[in-house]
Amino acid sequence: MMRINSSIRKLTTIFVVMFVAISGCLVYWQVVKADQVTATPHNPRICQPDNVPLRGNIYDRNGVLLAYSVPDPNACGGYTRHYTDPSLAGLIGYYVAGGLYPAIGLEAQYDAVLSGATGQTAINNLVHKILHTSQVGNNIYLTIDERIQKVVARDYADYTPDPTGTAFINHTYPTYPTDRGAAVVTDPHTGEILAMVSSPGYDPNKMVDTLTHSQNPTSYYDQLVKDPENPLLYRPTQGLYSPGSTFKTVTLMAGLDSGATTLDQNWDMQNAYKPWAIPQTADSPGTTVVGDNLGYGKYVFHFPVNTEFGYANSDNIMFAHIGANVGQQKWLDYTKRMYFDQTIPADLPIAQSHVLQADGNLNFANFVNDAYGQGVDFVTPMQMSLVDNTAANNGTLMRPMLISKITDKQNNVVQNFDPQQLSNVISPDAAYNTRVGMNAVATCGSAWHITEDNRPPTTVIGKTGTGEVGGGKPPESWMITQAPFDINNPQQVPALTIVAMRENGGEGAYSIGPAIWHMYSDIFNQNLVKTPLAPWNDPNVFCPEHNLWQTRTGPQVHGNQ
């Protein structure tokens, strides 16, 4: 009898141990390793509805629906994603359930949020998974304003360079047809991104439909990959370009803040107009800084001219000297404050812009050419937006902000996101004087024809750029801008910044300028950004009064370009 009881106890112990082991294995594979097992493309259960969370929606700042899931019995998990605005394709990206085709854009960056794999939602979904009931994801609200997004996308496409090679019938500045480029619209005081356009784009709904239902699922993707215009490149954050003379703004801010220059500093012909030959040294090759942007004998008839005049008319030689007067290490310190050659803290990945050589150094020849935008500077549109925002926000740089809040399926707020300051770049006085210089550019200098011909409802200020790329290709066309600006009210700061560019578009002002000026007009006329509008600054009155147009005997001569 004792032997039987002992055998029963041993057998019971074995069964208990086996039960615990099997239970542990089940918990391990069904809970701990469930996501990895489910995500394996070869798992036949991967597309069962209880293994595919009902993905959260993506909204704009005002609750306009931008991305959501729709029932589709022929799709993995029983749902496919739908997108309401193709101009946001590069930003939001696309998502296809099943794991065969990786998501891109925000759909990839915030996959854990949208699929409910984080926070309390993840705990709730663990219960759903054990019970084999439907899992749900969280919603994301962007800082994007869909109304402004549509304006920017439309105006960018409508006001393209003149295919004849001249921007306006009476202005013989070369422009070249191109639809490649980007635009970034921000609130400089919060860092909130209100609109972003990457051109050309693609159709995210066609992408999802093809990957889900086509017998050749990658056909549309392959077509886009082979397209020489590279529509899958998200140009605002991943495109890298020569910034041209927009980069003079970096040097102007450094010069004003450090005391190396003032707007009224006078420059003689030698230092403002004549080529600057820099000899070779042991540490640097020789170089010669050239660039007759002043138009001597056509727009400029006497010297000296001041820094404001040189910035307005994009004087390369003057700004090479200003950079040298700031000093290389101090100038580099200002670029670091604006996150050049660093990873920019942001809600989405941004390619690093740089002013340094590929080896991480910077010789003197490249430095003086960097100072006016034609050295080894290589930048994203988002990086130039940070430069623009620094001037607009009185010298304080805010973190680029794209996510405003996350909510659950019942629209309860899971997480709010607040504006964050990144750095104090320059003093408020230096920032204001930079805006005064930008007003001189847009009212009297290299962009004055844009202001004259497109008369916005308020004063728009900015800096033009025509980034030479070599190889016989037309230059990159840039403008960094902000509005409104009131020359009579230093306390009023611009409410909005717009940075836009076209690849190989030619003359900066005339390739991209008309599109930007129409963006401001449409945004302010539709009251999409509520702010007091300073009156339009008439060049024909302002420029002669402020000595920003020179005269000769006879009729007045207007400012350069």
Q: What does this 3D model show about the protein?
A:
- By secondary structure, the protein is an alpha+beta fold.
- The protein folds into 2 domains: about 45-140, Penicillin-binding protein 2a (Domain 2); about 145-200 and about 230-405 and about 420-540, DD-peptidase/beta-lactamase superfamily (Beta-lactamase).
- Helices cover about 35% and strands about 15% of the residues.
- The protein has 21 helices and 19 strands.
- It has a 6-stranded mixed sheet with strand order 3-2-1-4-14-15. Strands 8-7-19-18-17 form a 5-stranded antiparallel sheet, with helices on both faces.
- Strand 14 (about 405) and strand 15 form a beta hairpin.
- Helix 7 (about 145-160) runs antiparallel to helix 20 (about 510-525).
- It is elongated and about 115 Å long.
- The termini are far apart.
- The relative contact order is 0.12.
- The model is unreliable at about 120-135 and about 555-560 (pLDDT under 50).
Keywords:
alpha+beta; disordered C terminus; Beta-lactam/transpept; Beta-lactamase; 2 domains; 37% helix; elongated; 6-stranded mixed β-sheet; Penicillin-binding protein 2a (Domain 2); 561 residues; Beta-lactam/transpept-like; Penicillin-binding protein
Characterize the main sheet.
6 strands, mixed
Amino- and carboxy-terminal Cα gap: 111 Å
The rounded Rg comes to: 29 Å
| Total DSSP E strands | 19
The coarse silhouette is: elongated
What's the CATH superfamily of the largest domain, by name?
DD-peptidase/beta-lactamase superfamily
Estimated structural class? alpha+beta
- CATH level 1 class label of the largest domain: Alpha Beta
Q: Treating each run of at least 4 consecutive H or I residues as one helix, how many helices?
A: 21
> What is the CATH fold-level name of the largest domain?
Beta-lactamase
Percent of residues in beta strands = 15-25%
The helicity comes to 25-40%
Q: Please, how many domains? A: 2
Q: Spans of 5+ residues with little confidence (pLDDT < 50)?
A: 120-133, 554-561
Averaged pLDDT:
89
CATH architecture of the largest domain: 3-Layer(aba) Sandwich
Domain Penicillin-binding protein transpeptidase: 181-499
Organism: Dictyobacter aurantiacus
Domain Penicillin binding protein A dimerisation: 55-140
Region (Disordered): 453-474
